[in-house]
Design goal:
Elements (H helix, E strand, L loop, with lengths): L5 E12 L2 E13 L4 E5 L6 H8 L8 E9 L2 E2 L5 H7 L4 E4 L3 H4 L6 H13 L3 H14 L5 H4 L9 H13 L5 E5 L7 H18 L2 E6 L2 H7 L2 E6 L2 E7 H6 L4 H8 L44 E14 L4 E16 L4 E5 L6 H8 L7 E6 L2 E2 L5 H10 E4 L3 H4 L6 H11 L5 H14 L16 H13 L5 E5 L7 H18 L2 E6 L2 H7 L2 E6 L2 E7 H6 L4 H8 L23 E3 L8 E6 L2 E5 L1
Parallel strand pairs: 3-8, 3-9, 6-7, 7-8, 13-18, 13-19, 16-17, 17-18
Antiparallel strand pairs: 1-2, 1-4, 4-5, 9-10, 11-12, 11-14, 12-21, 14-15, 19-20, 20-23, 22-23
Helix pairs in contact: 4-5, 5-7, 7-8, 15-16, 15-17, 16-17, 17-18
């Protein structure tokens, strides 16, 4: 019988909290075979990342305790002296983390960070290490590899930085690669490229892979076997095909039910709520269709004409403008009361800058913006404050949006009092009503942000956005960082509020499956321009622009049997940097159907 590459038996990891030991991983056991990929899947707090950190012995011995057996190459890693473990870590076992910028030193050149590993672990000379670094960068498909050795991490895109991290992890020909949420922060097309790269490298190098994720679409795409974790325990394990076909544990079934499936909206015109899933029992409540609240006869809440936002790049002693970032170029759109218009595209396409420009958090270069008929760009300070009562913004990271030292009741009450809508006593009462409106309790007003989960914090941000009774909400990647079940709850809440109050949403996202669920209309952005716009059904069921097709082809399919049906493009999004004297040409659009327009190349 062939011995597994890694064998974990009865792994239990505890942390000291207030002087007492608390188990966060309990009695977990699984094996990873030679050249096999095992996915450990679960939501935040399930213990999957702690399991990986325990394997690598990266937890502080001062406040953590790991028991059980972790056998690798005939040795129990938990019994090894620290020096021996260090020779295995980064050498025989490589690791990729979620955020490449935390793995890379921003002040060291890329080449230096790769050669350092080669010199330390493989005893190479500087010349040998540099030659090997070029080979590694070429292996992870980084073009012009030699010339990029002398660049800093900030010069690379997110996808290219993750490729560099993979190159470092592969530098010593590891027997096992641990990938901890390596694609979560990446755009869907870049995620697809990284997954394809890991699979290709695994075949070429003969590695085993432990892949940690909360995305069931990614699990279906990459893993041979799957371990499902819930509240620190491995509740189910088996082949990936068996788990997707006939999951036995209620939590696994709930996790699969909560995954947004691209194409699930085929044939429907209006947004559709996610099924409500009880993650403990697996019980699923029926999906509810939203009511049609779009007021077509009323004037648009938001009207944007030929919006341009550029950022000057200055260099030299005289700070001469040498070029410009054309972040938003000639964008026009309309949004009506009760309607959701989604703005989709990859990082750097200009969608967030568009949202920020609309309410002048970023100053546009040119164009016209009207919110409820009021001229945004021509507004003075007091007028702009009044306009911003009508248009509120919800950001991606709720923790960054909330002051950690201010109780959330005060954070929600602050705009109410600042705009003179209520005195302190009335504002306090209104805060309680707002918290209950978003599914929290009024008693939570006295808590600080850190006392809430990620999903609850996002609900607090929605409550604060509703405080001034706006007509328009700009939601910028507002559910991207949430677990799949929490994401479904927040989307359903947004649809409920839209139905009740006739809110207009400009929903900014790169998650095509969520966009399909929530939208009435969709606008696709690429390099600062809208390349396709139309009714959600038309854009998703009959995409016309090549970039729209590429976005949809890259979405992971939560079905292991369809792994080979995806078309992966290795094309990186181009830079929006242009020379100072560059004048963009006027874009033309053709009508592909009623209200469905596509940019002509």
């Amino acid at each position: 019988m062939i011995k597994p590459t890694l064998s974990i038996s009865n792994l239990t990891t505890s942390f000291r909290v207030n002087g007492e030991w608390q188990n966060v991983v309990r009695d977990v056991s699984f094996d990873i075979g030679e050249k096999e990929t095992v996915a450990v899947v679960g939501e935040s707090g399930s213990g999957k990342s702690v399991t990986a950190m325990s394997i690598m012995r990266l937890l502080s011995p001062a406040n953590s305790r790991v028991t059980g057996r972790i056998e690798f190459e005939g040795k129990n890693l938990l019994d090894l002296p620290l020096g021996d473990m260090q020779s295995i870590r980064g050498n025989r076992i490589g690791m990729i983390f979620q955020e490449p910028m935390t793995s890379l030193n921003p002040v060291l050149k890329i080449g230096q960070q790769i050669t350092e590993v080669l010199v330390q672990h493989r005893g190479m000379s500087d010349a040998q290490a540099e030659a090997e670094a070029v080979r590694l960068l070429e292996k992870v498909r980084i073009p012009s590899a030699r010339s990029r050795l002398n660049e800093y991490p900030m010069s690379f895109s997110g996808g290219m930085r993750q490729r560099v991290v993979i190159a470092i992890a592969l530098a010593c020909d590891p027997k096992l690669l641990i990938a901890d949420e390596p694609t979560t922060a990446l755009d869907v097309t870049i995620q697809a490229q990284i997954l394809e790269l890991i699979k290709t490298l695994q075949e070429e190098e003969g590695m085993s892979v432990l892949f940690i994720t909360h995305d069931m679409g990614v699990v279906a795409e990459i893993s041979d076997r799957t371990v499902v974790m819930y509240r620190g325990e491995a509740v189910e394990s088996g082949t990936t095909r068996d788990i997707f076909k006939a999951a036995k544990h209620p939590y696994t079934r709930a996790l699969l039910s909560a995954v947004p499936q691209l194409g699930s909206m085929t044939g429907t015109d209006r947004p559709l709520r996610f099924p409500q899933v009880d993650m403990a029992t697996g019980e699923i409540q029926p999906v509810q269709q939203t009511e049609d609240t779009v007021k077509l006869n009323a004037g648009p809440i938001l009207k944007v004409d030929d919006l341009v936002t550029r950022f000057n790049i200055k260099k030299g002693f005289l700070r001469k403008t040498v070029g410009r970032i054309h972040a938003v170029e000639g964008v026009s759109l309309e949004l009506r009361q009760g309607e959701t218009l989604s703005l989709v595209g990859e990082s750097g396409c200009g969608k967030s800058t568009t949202g920020r420009s609309i309410i002048r958090l970023t100053d546009p270069t040119a164009g016209e913006i009207r919110i409820d008929g009021k001229n945004v760009l021509g507004a003075g300070k007091s007028e702009l404050a009044d306009i911003r009562r009508e248009a509120q913004m919800i950001f991606q990271d709720p923790f960054e949006s909330l002051n950690p030292r201010i109780r959330i009741g005060e954070a929600i009450a602050e705009p109410i009092i600042a705009h003179g809508l209520a005195n302190a006593a009335e504002a306090k009462e209104r805060v309680g009503e707002l918290l209950e409106r978003v599914g929290l309790s009024a008693s939570m007003a006295s808590r600080f942000p850190h006392e809430f989960s990620g999903g609850q914090r996002q609900r607090v941000c929605i409550a604060r956005a509703l405080a001034l009774e706006p007509k328009l909400i700009i939601a910028d990647e507002s559910v991207s960082a949430l677990d799949v079940s929490v994401k479904a709850q927040v989307i359903n809440l947004m649809l409920d509020l839209q139905e009740k109050y006739g809110l207009g949403y400009l929903f900014i996202s790169h998650d095509m499956a969520v966009v399909e669920r929530i939208s009435h209309r969709v606008a696709v952005m690429y390099l600062g321009e809208i390349v396709e716009v139309g009714p959600r059904r038309a854009v998703f069921e009959n995409p016309q622009h090549e970039y729209t097709k590429r976005l949809m082809a890259a979405v992971p399919i939560a079905d292991p049997s369809r792994r080979q049906t995806r078309r992966i493009s290795n094309e990186e999004i181009k830079s929006p940097f242009r020379a100072a004297d560059y004048v963009p040409s006027k874009r033309l659009y053709r009508e592909a159907g009623e209200g469905h327009f596509v940019q002509v190349a």
